Amino acid sequence: MTFEPTIVSFLCNWCSYTGADLAGTSRIPYSPNLRTIRIMCSGRIEPTFVMKAFREGADGVLMCGCHPGDCHYHEGNYKCLRRYHLLQKYIVQMGIEKERMRLEWISASEGKQFAALADEFTETIKKLGPSKIKKVMETLT
Amino acid sequence: MEEIRIGVYICWCGSNIAQLIDVKFIAGEIKKLENVIISRDYKYMCSDPGQETLIADIKQNKLNRIVVAACSPRIHEPTFRKALEKAGLNPYMFQMANIREQDSWVHIDKEYATLKAVALVKAAVSRVKHHEPLNKKSVEVNSATMVIGGGITGLTSALEIAQAGKQVYLIEKSDSLGGITAKIDLTYPDLKSAGQMIRPKISQVQNHNLIEVFLNTILEDISGYVGNFSTKVRRNGTSEEITFGNIIVATGLKPFSPVTIPEYKYKVLPDVITSIELEKMLQDGTVKTSDGSKPDNIAIIHCVGSRNEQYHPYCSRTCCSTALKYANQLRSLLPDAHLFDIYADMRAYGKGCEEFYTNTSNKNIMFLMYDQKNGLPEIRKANSSDNAGMIITFSEKLSGENIEVPVDLVILMTAVEAHEDAKEVARLTGISLCGNDFYIEKHPKLDPVATTTDGVYIAGTCQGPKGIDESIVQAKAAAAKVLSMIAMGSIEIEVAVSHVNEEVCCGCQTCIMVCPYKAISFDEEKNVSVVNEALCKGCGTCGSTCPTGAIKSLHFTDIQILSQIEGLLKTESETI
Amino acid sequence: MEKEKPKLNLAVYWGAACGGCCVSVLDVHEKLFDVVANANLVFWPIALDTKYSDVEAMPDGFIDVTLYNGAIRNSENEHIAKLLRQKTKVMVAYGSCAHLGGIPGLANFHTGKEIFERVYVSSESTVNKEKIYPQTSYKIPEGELTLPEFYNDVRTLGQVVDVDYYLPGCPPQTERLLEVFMAIVKKEELPPNGSVIGATDKGQCDECPRKRSDNKKIKQFKRPVEVIDDGETCFLEQGLICMGPATRCGCGYRCIEGNSPCRGCYGPPPGSPDPGSKMMSAIGTMVGSDDPEEIAKIVEQIEDPAGTFYRFSLPAAILRRKLIETTVS
């Protein structure tokens, strides 16, 4: 059986979630591996959520916000971007491939781009193979 | 603690969901979960019978949490929240799982789509367990309105609102009202005087006792929220504060400067002028070359800076009809002149404009077509042997030939573009820009003058290039939106705001720095941060920034999101 | 003569610890007499010669209070933790290591095998050509010698046994210990089981005497040696990572008073879903740039994010150890 990764995506309500909805209304198919959590702004995404997603068995975590300058709440996406860089350094220290985590900007009109991103990220994670994080965290020796 | 009793409803959405996703299987899987009392599938949950089932279940089974798996929450979350209210349940004890837009419509494999749907519903069930009731809050609407921009759009909005008996503050950064409309001679396609249209409006505005006009005025700051804004305006070096409930942004646009297009030699050759410079000549009644002589050959070039990736990718929309207007006016002023209209595509859209094009083409005007793909027409100074001041060379598309057109005067139909301070106005008012620095409407079709910031509307060309008629439509639409808001008297404000736990907050003040709405202040006495709930828009950025964990982003709390993640990744049902 | 009150039976034990916690118990100085007046010390390896077999012989619930300090690093730590749990009414995780894993918890960046390799083979001062490692059992003519098993992971006390109270700190502030002890003696109403005691719910800034503002945009992260501290301004506002806002009060802001940023030994205030992620999020947000390249450069200045934000708490984190292939069996 081929490996079908589970990817948790955090999408901001105003741009990227709407963009993902647009992929739906435009019937643009993409891989079914993404499972989305809607938040109001990418500025709400905190490292805890990403750690938790990995801990619970996500093979990849995708975060999307509005394009720089377009944040519905002015600059939440920049806050997300800054944290992302630090979080990336942390997960590498924790032995997690940094490619398992992505931050991308998707606007409300970018349904097509969202679908392409979902496919492309799924491919990346497929190449990396299943994440061992959950198993390692559960194995106490 | 109250026992958690969850009702879960899987919507077929006719065949939209049910044809790909096994709704019965999901309902069965979800029924197995702890605290789930009812798990049903139904053809159309949003229909009246669908909602009635939900309401009856809540009442009969004492349900206190509801999950609906259906379309995007951006569509029907408000519908179901209302249904919960009808059943006597707090509307926030509800969570939606989007299994249509983000599942059945985008996936092909039935099994994967169904498994994904199960995960999404499980996540919603886990999350809803941690939901807390939130109570509606409303604030009174200040009946004054601030209109930014004193062009035809702003003037129209201001008059509409003032004539309904409500106060307007009209802010204009320049020293006069009228905007671009005051700078043009005639309108198209009717060839009526723009001045005769705008001047009475200006004087009506200036004389209206409910309109206060601020000329030479700059906005320093806008604070507040829908219904209760305030701003500091500065004019003649002094600052004053005004308060109002709604804002109409009608800041217009400006002509693009073609100096950056080398082919056209604007500012290099004195007889290459822009459309707005021609308007001045037409208003003055004479069209002359730089040496004061009458031009025998005149060319009008279209799409100057428009529809060209190098300058502006968009169509400026009004230039084609304006060019036809010039052709008519020049033909009347200079009956013997040779007139060349060099266009890329003739886009005479709108009521009466195609007819206008047909009529104009009968007036001895030479229409020549160029193709932007083959480069722009190039203007050069003519030799002394040539019988004209300049030569335009380009590849004529219809004949397929490279041609040279001798001309004495060239009119560049320049693109229009957003003002340099469009970004600043967006920042001040909290609205968003599209890629070309025009403002984005809330919905391009369904809500074209509202923005995603409540109480802020956009009208006219600041939203995108358009004609006077369309600008006025928007001006009146925005005024109607404002008046209906004023008529309501009070409005409900966001309740999913941030909340500071004063027992934990230690006063580090990091949250104050990150709030885009200045909604958080510092209480020196208690040494804690305080959220002004009316200003908070619920983005949650402070919640994710608070190092102490003292800030709770209501309805998007840590525990709610973490539980949702857990639910999403529960993998009991690996296969169908 | 006053009738003698029944005394409490008190035990103090160290798991994977540095000894500082035991010393902190001694730091009660003359108040030790108050302790001894109210308690029999029935087990305290650092001070008394009580054998494990003596503990095993005690009836269940014989010990009123055990102060267990240290993390769970090996089978002996675990065995004694479980034994003491069985014999004890009130189990207190005493100090950062028992509470959240503490400094020994940083070993979770490595595997047990890696640590042995470093300690017994590759360290510069070691000569061990035969690569002899400690064995859990070794037969000699006289019989069998045993050593505890060295685990791959460091765990907190709470991950091994039920803990009634957590008394944080590296080491805990001694006054807090006395307060807690006297509360137990006087049978005062104790907080609910599982509570953190001897600390408040607020972050360090609540007590911190330094001047703070909301201007926490950091363009350059610095190490303490790189800053001429004015002694007055919030460390964060000087570009120094201070765990203060993400760390409970209770220590009496000892480090801060010594002009050193808080390192976080008291652990996070209540409700934090992870001991380090909130501070990581806050520090990330403070990065003073919107430009991706500049952000990356500024973040690069934080040498060791995991070690900084989880200095005392890695085993208690959502991601409680580094992901290393060999840890999956």
Can you describe what's shown?
The complex is a heterotrimer of chains A (141), B (576) and C (329). Chain A has 141 residues and is of the alpha/beta class. Chain A contains five helices and four strands; from the N terminus they run E-H-E-H-E-H-E-H-H. In chain A, helix 1 packs across helix 4 (111-128). The radius of gyration of chain A is 15 Å and the shape is globular. The mean pLDDT of chain A is 94. The mean pLDDT of chain B is 95. Chain B folds into four domains: 6-134, Rossmann fold; 145-253 and 418-491, 3-Layer(bba) Sandwich (FAD/NAD(P)-binding domain); 255-415, FAD/NAD(P)-binding domain, CATH 3.50.50; 498-554, Alpha-Beta Plaits, CATH 3.30.70.20. A five-stranded parallel beta sheet of chain B has the order 8-7-6-12-23, covered by helices on one side. In chain B, strands 14-21-15-16-17 form a five-stranded parallel beta sheet. Chain B has a four-stranded parallel beta sheet with strand order 2-1-3-4, with helices on both faces. Chain B is 30% helix and 24% strand. In chain B, helix 6 (152-163) runs parallel beside helix 12. The longest helix of chain B is centred in the C-terminal third of the chain and has 21 residues, at 468-488. Chain B is elongated. Chain C is of the alpha/beta class. Chain C has helices at residues 20-26, 32-38, 52-57, 75-87, 96-100, 112-122, 174-185, 254-257, 277-286, 292-300, 305-309, and strands at 8-14, 39-43, 63-69, 72-74, 88-94, 137-140, 143-146, 150-155, 165-167, 195-196. Chain C has a six-stranded parallel beta sheet, with helices on both faces. The model of chain C has no long low-confidence stretch (mean pLDDT 93). Chains in contact: A-B, A-C, B-C.
Give the topology:
The complex is a heterotrimer of chains A (141), B (576) and C (329).
Chain A: E1 7-12, H1 16-25, E2 34-39, H2 47-55, E3 60-65, H3 76-93, E4 101-105, H4 111-128, H5 133-138
Parallel strand pairs in A: 1-2, 1-3, 3-4
Chain B: E1 6-11, H1 23-31, E2 36-42, H2 48-61, E3 65-70, H3 73-86, E4 94-98, H4 100-104, H5 110-128, E5 137-140, E6 145-148, H6 152-163, E7 168-171, H7 194-207, E8 211-214, E9 217-225, E10 228-235, E11 238-244, E12 246-249, E13 254-255, E14 272-274, H8 275-284, E15 297-304, H9 319-333, E16 338-343, H10 353-361, E17 365-369, E18 378-381, E19 390-395, E20 402-407, E21 409-414, E22 416-417, H11 422-429, E23 456-458, H12 468-488, E24 490-493, E25 498-500, H13 510-514, E26 520-523, E27 528-531, H14 541-545, E28 551-553, H15 558-568
Parallel strand pairs in B: 1-2, 1-3, 3-4, 6-7, 6-12, 7-8, 12-23, 14-21, 15-16, 15-21, 16-17
Antiparallel strand pairs in B: 5-24, 9-10, 10-11, 13-22, 18-19, 19-20, 25-28, 26-27
Chain C: E1 8-14, H1 20-26, H2 32-38, E2 39-43, H3 52-57, E3 63-69, E4 72-74, H4 75-87, E5 88-94, H5 96-100, H6 112-122, E6 137-140, E7 143-146, E8 150-155, E9 165-167, H7 174-185, E10 195-196, H8 254-257, H9 277-286, H10 292-300, H11 305-309
Parallel strand pairs in C: 1-2, 1-3, 3-5, 5-9, 9-10
Antiparallel strand pairs in C: 4-8, 6-7
